[in-house]
Specification:
The complex is a heterodimer of chains A (101) and B (158). Chain A is an all-alpha fold and 101 residues long. Chain A has 4 helices and no strands. Chain B is mainly alpha-helical. Chain B contains 5 helices and no strands. The chains are: A mainly alpha (101), B mainly alpha (158).
Chain lengths: 101, 158
């Protein structure tokens, strides 16, 4: 019984981590679009290169954080959450068993 | 292999981010100290995270710089003028812009993979505390937000 519960916890963590990593797709597409449009802007107005580059760097940094959030959550779900949940389950079962006795 | 000249904009922005990450890392260390959980693993975790966060930003800025440099000598025609409220017709991207887009997406994927490697190192090696190493990855965004707020204040004061 407890093996099944642990298996469900591990599966849930893995599925959750996979879902969290979907957040990494958007920033990649968005950054690519932003940079391509900024390159076109530089091509049209070469004198604005410095300002466009600075703004582009800051914009990419902001866009990237969304992907980082997802990745950090995914990493925590893979490395930290399983032990946390399994320990909580074991504690709950121990308490339940002690209550029965 | 040719040498890479770093543009002043990249240097300046990376410097700002490095300063912000440094200050916020010191604050995080202070919080750990107040909570009584500060030890050398927290310090090493903060250092690993800070080095990676600044390196990640620098690599991204270098990619952006490289994309901008690809436009050297390229003169695109101005966008066609439209009447008020009308969307300009969608034009196909120039080959340089397409290349920049692909390069940026490739760079993003590579940097994310590097982050996974860094996280794996932080979790597997006992000398690093992984939590501060991961927290530091969010500091560049906080720095950019603070910088934006300060710029707004300056503009309002003027």
């Amino acid at each position: 019984m407890i093996e099944l519960a642990i298996g469900i916890i591990l599966a849930g963590c893995a599925i959750g981590a996979g879902l969290a990593l979907i957040a990494g797709i958007g920033p990649g597409i968005g950054e690519g679009n932003a940079v391509s449009k900024a390159c076109e802007a530089i091509g049209r107005q070469p004198e604005s290169r410095g300002a466009v580059t600075s703004t582009m760097i800051m914009g990419c940094a902001i866009a990237e954080t969304t992907g980082l959030y997802g990745l950090v959550i995914g990493i925590l779900l893979i490395f930290v959450a399983p032990n946390l949940f399994i320990n909580a389950l074991k504690n709950a079962l121990t308490g339940w068993a002690a209550g029965l006795l | 292999m040719g040498s890479v000249t770093i543009q002043p904009a990249v240097r300046q922005e990376t410097g700002k981010i490095a300063a912000g990450v440094g200050i916020l890392s010191v604050l995080t260390a202070g919080v750990y100290l107040i909570l009584g959980r500060f030890n050398y693993t927290v310090l090493l975790g903060l250092l690993l995270g800070a080095v990676f966060a600044i390196g990640n930003f620098f690599l991204m800025a270098l990619t952006v710089q490289h994309a901008a440099e690809k436009m050297n000598g390229v003169q695109l025609p101005p966008e066609p003028e439209t009447e008020d409220g009308e969307e300009p017709p969608q034009q196909e991207l120039s080959p340089q812009a397409k290349q920049a887009k692909k390069r940026m997406q490739l760079s993003y994927t590579g940097r994310m993979l590097l982050l996974v490697v860094m996280a794996a190192i932080a979790f597997k090696l006992p000398c690093f505390d992984p939590v501060p190493a991961l927290i530091v990855q969010l500091f560049p965004r906080i720095t950019v937000s603070i910088e934006g707020l300060m710029m707004k204040k300056e503009q309002n004061a003027q």
